[in-house]
Amino acid sequence: MLSTLSACTVDEQRRAAWLEQRRALERQQKRSTPDGPRRKTGTPEPIQAAIRFGLKLAGLWPRCVANGIDVELRTLSLDLPRLPSSFDGYRILHVADPHFDAAPGVTDAIVRSVAGVEADMCVFTGDFRAADEGPFTQTDILEPIAAIIGTIRAPDGCLATLGNHDSADMVPALEQLGLRVLLNEAWRLQRRSETLTVTGVDDVHRFFTPAALAALAAHDRRTFGVVLAHSPELAGEAAAAGHLLYLCGHTHGGQLCLPGGWPVVTHLSRHKDLYAGLWRYGELTGYTSRGAGLSTLPIRLNCRPEVTLLVLRRLTQRR
Questions:
Q1: In sequence order, what are the residues at sequence separation of 6 or more whose Cβ sits closer than 8 angstroms to the Cβ of residue 13?
Q2: Predicted model pTM
Q3: Distance (Å, rounded) from C-alpha 227 to C-alpha 241?
Q4: What structural domains and CATH numbers belong to the chain?
């Protein structure tokens, strides 16, 4: 894995410092965000109970449960004007928000959706488990991650970032499986004389630190910059630093949506309009996945779960 990649900002001392700081943030009762401390978000139990009751009363609960494990493999072609010609047709398999232990059937559905997929690189953008706090004890989530890595073809390897549900203590176990977890750092992939730089930042929704901004700002604008983030909440900073592609999730596309896919809740503190799908922010192209898994309730409505195969295409400018 990662045989064609070379590290450009790997520093074990810096990683150790990150671990200490992340563990301290995980003990806090408030979220750390780019806009300062914020209260933790979530759906209160009475509201969850009311949703369950209403959907069951309307006879929609079984359908919503089935929707939750109807994972789609979505193939999307992205036209990118400044993509190096060596990476024209480059394929990135994006798995966001799997929450492997959230509900029965989720793991099997996700693994089936990616079986036999051929990509160049696979990326995970966080929220591997259902719990949103506490030590990492959910070792059963490691088996489906290994299954995904084993069933796909991704010769350039598998990269990952952490989400707001993840624990810092997960990193060694994830890396033993063959994932490279990017902790506010970057990797470079070179083809001929052209370079793709992938910068992965730690979760910004709950565990933001200035190190994430420093990682984005360190981008070499002579290379094509791809950002892996858990949520779209650093889109502005990524665009300002000259990155050109941003892959994220976190929102589940709303998970429970009104007809037309309008989310009831996005769980975003900023850039709330970037809750799902393809978007642009200046010269930055972004994609917010609807996510593969479930959170809080084991259901979806008007919002199908997805794993996304992104095909990068060099858009030539007409004169």
A1: none
A2: 0.95
A3: 11
A4: 70-314 (3.60.21.10)
